[in-house]
């Protein structure tokens, strides 16, 4: 059986165990485990005192220890090996040791050490590699028919991670990253803009693919084109006729830009007409755009507005008054 002694020295029988308990250990939750040499098994005793046989072991378990994941290991004295028992009670022979292992311990990397009584040596048992743990902290960035998935690697399972696989359909099918790389982020191309994808990642080591990450959602989209630049303020020569009550603007045209001449007085707006003209400047003939608007008496604000496509630019304006 198992005795419990309080710090004050009060002793009680906590629970019964298997036959001839030789070793004892305790986990982070306060559960107690005993290596029972004559019954070749391990007892688990809860803090409340409930005792069960967790699993069988090799022959004559003399020592017992536990790792950070809750796996139990026993040094089996007569079978010269180590048993591994998972938290759920699955027992396997992990490895052989020197002769008559009696003491056992495990380090932070999961390596197991046994003190072997009759061979006067210590065995080191390296835990076998396992599939890598799932990547975490996925962050998806949408691109043009593509996505970039940043991530934090999970534990490598005892074997170096050599590559990653990604799934765009929530883990139904997987694609191997090419060329192979272990860095973050993972770039995924060939997606359809406007379609939402559920992306998962998993690492690959010598054992094979590891656990899949949680899914992250991403919707690729075509880049938004930058706004068209506004046309510059047009260069214009202004002229007016008081008798005809007209305003004319002779504009130096820019390719692809159209021009409108308007004049506004209070709530009244007049629109002029434009035509192409040629002017002489020394021996040169220069193409110009001449716009004229006919007005009535009053004060007017004339303006030439440039436009390219659907984008209007900065106006060139001037005030006039007709009597």
CATH class of the largest domain: Mainly Beta
Number of strands: 30
Shape descriptor reads rod-shaped
Q: How are helices and strands ordered from N to C?
A: EEEEEEEEEEEEEEEEEEEEEEEEEEEEEE
Mean pLDDT: 95
Rg result: 43 Å
**Number of helical elements:** 0
Largest sheet: 5 strands, antiparallel
Give a verbal description of the structure.
This protein has strands spanning 2-5, 11-15, 21-26, 32-36, 41-45, 51-56, 61-66, 72-76, 81-85, 91-96, 101-106, 112-116, 121-125, 136-143, 146-152, 163-167, 175-176, 186-188, 197-205, 208-209, 216-218, 236-241, 246-251, 258-265, 268-271, 273-281, 284-294, 298-308, 311-312, 316-322. It is an all-beta fold and 323 residues long. The protein has 3 domains: 2-125, 6 Propeller (Neuraminidase), CATH 2.120.10; 136-218, Sandwich (Immunoglobulin-like); 236-322, Immunoglobulin-like (Sandwich), CATH 2.60.40.3340. Strands 16, 17, 19, 20 and 21 form a 5-stranded antiparallel β-sheet that branches. Strands 24, 25, 28, 29 and 30 form a 5-stranded antiparallel β-sheet that branches. It has a 4-stranded antiparallel β-sheet with strand order 3-4-5-6, with no helix packed on it. It is rod-shaped and about 125 Å long. The N and C termini lie far apart (121 Å).
């Amino acid at each position: 059986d198992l005795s419990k002694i309080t710090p004050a020295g009060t002793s009680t029988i906590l629970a019964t165990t298997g036959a001839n308990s030789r070793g004892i250990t305790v986990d982070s939750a306060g559960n107690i485990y005993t290596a029972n040499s004559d019954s070749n098994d391990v007892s688990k005793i809860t803090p409340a005192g409930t005792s069960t046989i967790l699993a069988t072991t090799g022959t004559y378990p003399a020592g017992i220890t536990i790792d950070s994941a809750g796996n139990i290991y026993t040094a089996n004295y007569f079978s010269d090996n180590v048993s591994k028992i998972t938290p759920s009670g699955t027992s396997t022979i992990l490895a052989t040791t020197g002769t008559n292992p009696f003491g056992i311990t495990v380090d932070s990397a999961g390596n197991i050490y046994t003190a072997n009584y009759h061979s006067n040596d210590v065995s080191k048992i390296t835990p076998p590699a396992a599939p890598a743990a799932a990547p975490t902290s996925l962050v998806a960035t949408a691109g043009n028919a593509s996505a970039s998935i940043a991530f934090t690697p999970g534990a490598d399972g005892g074997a170096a991670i050599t590559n990653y696989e990604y799934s765009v359909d929530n883990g139904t099918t997987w694609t191997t990253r090419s060329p192979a790389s272990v860095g973050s982020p993972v770039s995924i191309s060939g997606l359809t803009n406007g379609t939402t994808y559920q992306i998962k990642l998993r690492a690959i080591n010598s054992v094979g693919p590891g656990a899949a990450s949680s899914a992250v959602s991403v919707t690729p989209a075509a880049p938004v084109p930058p706004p068209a630049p506004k046309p510059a303020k047009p260069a214009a020569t202004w002229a007016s006729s008081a008798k005809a009550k007209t305003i004319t603007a002779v504009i130096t045209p820019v390719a692809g830009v159209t021009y409108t001449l308007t004049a506004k007085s209070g709530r009244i707006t007049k629109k002029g007409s434009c035509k192409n003209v040629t002017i002489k400047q020394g021996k040169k003939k220069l193409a110009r755009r001449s716009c004229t608007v006919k007005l009535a008496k009053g004060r007017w604000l004339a303006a030439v507005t440039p436009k390219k496509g659907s984008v209007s630019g900065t106006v060139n304006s001037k005030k006039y008054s007709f009597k």
